[in-house]
């Protein structure tokens, strides 16, 4: 036994067990997130049943089974269910009934013993709407200009035909409002600022001023005419969409008219085959990652959050990499090793332990108020008091996270430099290279993989940070992406959405927690995928550089 301990076998098994437990924990975490997030996009069958509690009227229920749990009799009574047998175990089901605009209850728990036989009617229709969430019921009529055009089974075929036509119109409306009208408004705003700059210039001659004002007014008239044309086209499309409506019937028999323009997509899950459900699943997931959020972020897509997260991380990497690498090179290769250098190195290491919210406060006070406010005074005075750079934006968020992750890059780069054998340095100097040539042509290329390792760690930490971003640029809903077709194309002064903050907002600030819970898991999975893609890109670069300089290090 003593020899067994001396050989270190227990420690080998202990380390192997720790690694195995860590791998199982990571795989389990990712699997849990993926299972709870991805199943949200599957078109679940709709169940219909009668619900009868003693002393209450029979209720007709129609909805999707969202969750189930088993309760003891006392626990069931605490939740309002009537149970006589104290030894009984009650299974209750959470049913997503939708129709929030009808009875204000989207999700409802029902006790299993009081539920009648479950049926799956094939004519049940589920509609995702732009407001009020999903509607679950029976399609009774299709109306055009207020007149009934189709009923019964023919109503679904006519509805599907009209919906496809209107979907193209709605997409065109969105393009006009989000892109074309936005571009025209940007040009008009730029002309307004040009006029204000002209009014603030006291050195301009009157003739030149009058000539420039006339040119500005002519250009403004042209853009305003273009704006009127776009508005007229949008209104025509809106009027065409408003001609169509459908009449839906709830489980209780109440009829509700829904405008066709409010329908995002309809489907009949009970009548769909497995292949149709798989195609629907792929389309729904794509709509999620490529669409824009709706209904307080509990519905729609997360494209702005994905775009904002990736852009902020890339800009952060552009800032942190050169500063971190140069600082590490100076501390390791040029600085005189003494008390001051050791103090700086200790300060850098301690900086990694500072709470991230402290960096957010610093970024707000220094970058946003001081630097951004100064930039506005110098270069954007005509826009004041509306701030341009004197508010949260992608640039200040990226710089704040660059400071947050700077110690990681410095420490990793120093470790890489320290591992370069002294013989390589001496050999380069012996061959006549200067210290600078030895450093930048021999040592730094060999330490590049370590620098990339530091960048990987920085990206992994920065992409998931939320607390500092809440102070320096992240918002619940961003009206515009940080990239557009207007010069300079990348607008780092704009506020942005972030996947981490989106998860926090949907999970803890949403007015409809049950509806937002699957989106929390799905968004968390997308965030993990974004981090993995960014890290794999950096790892591939590191491996390429490692192979390139492997022969030189040997």
Automatic annotation (TrEMBL):
CDD domains listed in its UniProt record: TM_PBP2 (cd06261)
Residue ranges of coiled coil: 200-240
Membrane topology summary: Multi-pass membrane protein
This protein's record includes keyword Transport: yes
Alphabetical list of InterPro entries matching this protein: MetI-like, MetI-like_sf, Phosphate_PstA
Entry's Gene Ontology BP terms: phosphate ion transmembrane transport
SUPFAM superfamilies (alphabetical): MetI-like
This protein's GO CC annotations: plasma membrane
Domain ABC transmembrane type-1: 306-538
Domain of life: Bacteria
Transmembrane segments: 12-35, 302-331, 351-375, 395-417, 438-460, 519-541
GO molecular function: phosphate transmembrane transporter activity
Record localization: Cell inner membrane; Cell membrane
Main location per the UniProt record: membrane
This protein's UniProt keywords: Cell membrane, Coiled coil, Membrane, Transmembrane, Transmembrane helix, Transport
Family under the similarity heading: Belongs to the binding-protein-dependent transport system permease family. CysTW subfamily.
UniProt cross-references to NCBIfam families, sorted A to Z: 3a0107s02c
Protein name, per record: Phosphate transport system permease protein PstA
Organism: Alkalispirillum mobile
